[in-house]
Automatic annotation (TrEMBL):
GO terms for cellular component: endoplasmic reticulum chaperone complex; extracellular region. GO terms for biological process: regulation of B cell proliferation. InterPro entries: MZB1 (IPR052682). This is Marginal zone B-and B1-cell-specific protein. It comes from Acipenser ruthenus (Sterlet sturgeon).
């Protein structure tokens, strides 16, 4: 992922994680009642499901002369312009996730 797109990628990832967690929590509340929290394993499963998605709803868009990622949760989604979906961008977003998970695990095990 090019450096100038990393902020957009992280925002997209955070948006998707929040969206997946909100949906999982609302399902849990519907089944178990108000105030029922997700278990740790449900959080892990939800986040793994989120991170393993295809990320195809994100693409590259030129906004005010700069290339930016565009898709759900990003401010560029509402800007006028053509979006180039597919190509290397979904894979690059997934690579950002894999790298951040690898880095977190390295910190966890080196402590």
């Amino acid at each position: 992922m090019p450096g100038y797109l990393k902020c957009d990628a992280c925002k997209a990832i955070a948006f998707q994680m929040k969206d997946y967690l909100v949906k999982a929590e609302s399902k849990r509340t519907a089944v178990k009642g108000k105030g029922a929290a997700l278990s740790e394993s449900e959080y892990v499963d939800t986040l793994e499901h989120c991170c393993s998605q295809k990320w195809e709803q994100y693409g590259l868009k030129e906004v005010h002369g700069f290339k930016r990622l565009s898709g759900p949760g990003l401010e560029t989604a509402d800007k006028m312009g053509m979006v180039m979906y597919g190509g290397p961008w979904p894979k690059r977003i997934f690579t950002v996730i894999k790298y951040s998970q690898w880095y977190k695990n390295c910190q966890l095990y080196s402590a």
